[in-house]
Amino acid sequence: xxxxxxxxxxxxxxxxxxxxxxxxxxxxxxxxxxxxxxxxxxxxxxxxxxxxxxxxxxxxxxxxxxxxxxxxxxxxxxxxxxxxxxxxxxxxxxxxxxxxxxxxxxxxxxxxxxxxxxxxxxxxxxxxxxxxxxxxxxxxxxxxxxxxxxxxxxxxxxxxxxxxxxxxxxxxxxxxxxxxxxxxxxxxxxxxxxxxxxxxxxxxxxxxxxxxxxxxxxxxxxxxxxxxxxxxxxxxxxxxxxxxxxxxxxxx
Length: 252
What we know:
The protein is 19% helix and 28% strand. The chain is α+β, with helices and mostly antiparallel strands. It has two domains: 3-130, lpxc deacetylase, domain 1 (Ribosomal Protein S5, domain 2), CATH 3.30.230; 137-246, lpxc deacetylase, domain 1, CATH 3.30.1700.10. Strands 2-3-8-4-5 form a five-stranded mixed sheet, covered by helices on one side. Helix 1 (79-87) crosses helix 2 (110-119) and helix 1 (79-87) crosses helix 5 (235-249). The radius of gyration is 18 Å and the shape is globular.
């Protein structure tokens, strides 16, 4: 039998928003059984709350965004933090933010795993709840598609298609079965990435203002520009699995 989880201690960190470029303080606080995951905007009057609700997802261009429908309060770039919550099975937690965007840290979920370790993940008294896929479900959007199929476990297979030499062959396809492979070892350190040709357009749209070589992989016509190179040979597809794990955890 599995039980719900939260953290034992409050913990904070300060960073920069990837898209806003704003300095932001993130604080994680314990929450009781059946509370769920909620975000609190401490920078706004009355500190409005945004629940982690899949029906409040509004916008997924370059990041995952929640918008509370009544007051239009925004919490952006939640996917890496949510991915860390999924890794440790966090069901109940309060996330306080001093700006609208989760800090990007190093562009992966590894820093958030470190925070959770420091705050000590603990089991609670109520049973954990699950969603089980009972039949195949598929959706498409232009040239992209995703399919859910019944499976006794949790496995993700992801394929990237980019016309670039770094994405050739096996570098762009990966299947991870989380009952046999470790999220911490295989996925958590994979960083977000962008192409040089995209950056001017992204910034002209008011996004990517906090991005740099310390928190993202930047790719030119032939190679990566980061001096330290890649953390995994196929880091790009591993990061997209990291994103997918985080986005799926929004469902609960």
